[in-house]
Amino acid sequence: MIDRTRPLAVFDLDGTLADSSHRQHLLDRRPRDWDAFFAAAPADPPLAEGVTLCREAAQECEVVYLTGRPERCREDTVEWLAAQGLPGGALHMRRDSDRRPARLTKLETLRALGRGREIRMLVDDDELVCDAAEEAGFHVVRARWTGASEALKNAQEREGRT
């Protein structure tokens, strides 16, 4: 049973909990190889800083995962989260056809989650998502423990892919 009085801790995946650096080169070419990029996600190593913060947050909060990954990646993503021993929690993913920037899609989901619930924190590596969330009044922890390629940053903002 879900305790609706517990605050939410919202965690991004790529660059926050999952090290996607080994697959970012797939976005450097034109056209970008999105199928291969997402197919390689199950091999992502965990990012210790993010995993530790997520486990700590779960002691006081209900953990929710918010990713720009498309819905078609759900099974692989759920399996990856379980394999890392991360806390169970709702997984919010981008609709396969949604190409809006991550700063818009994630803020929309945050607002929906925040209706009637305290959001204790959003943990994300995308600076534009973090800026938008802070401007909307959410407490943000910027996941700066890994670097994203320029291709990935452009994909998040301009192509609405992750």
Question: Can you walk me through this structure?
Answer:
The chain contains 6 helices and 5 strands, in the order βααβαβαβαβα. By secondary structure, the chain is an alpha/beta fold. Strands 3-2-1-4-5 form a 5-stranded parallel sheet, with helices on both faces. Strand 4, helix 5 and strand 5 form a beta-alpha-beta unit. The chain is globular and about 45 Å long. The termini are far apart. The relative contact order is 0.22. The model has no long low-confidence stretch (mean pLDDT 90).
Q: What is the gist of this entry?
A:
This protein has 162 residues and is an alpha/beta fold.
Distinctive features:
162 residues; alpha/beta; five-stranded parallel sheet; 6 helices; 5 strands; 17% strand; globular
SSE arrangement:
Elements (H helix, E strand, L loop, with lengths): L7 E4 L22 H6 L8 H10 L4 E9 L3 H10 L6 E5 L7 H12 L5 E6 L2 H9 L4 E3 L7 H10 L3
Helix pairs in contact: 4-5
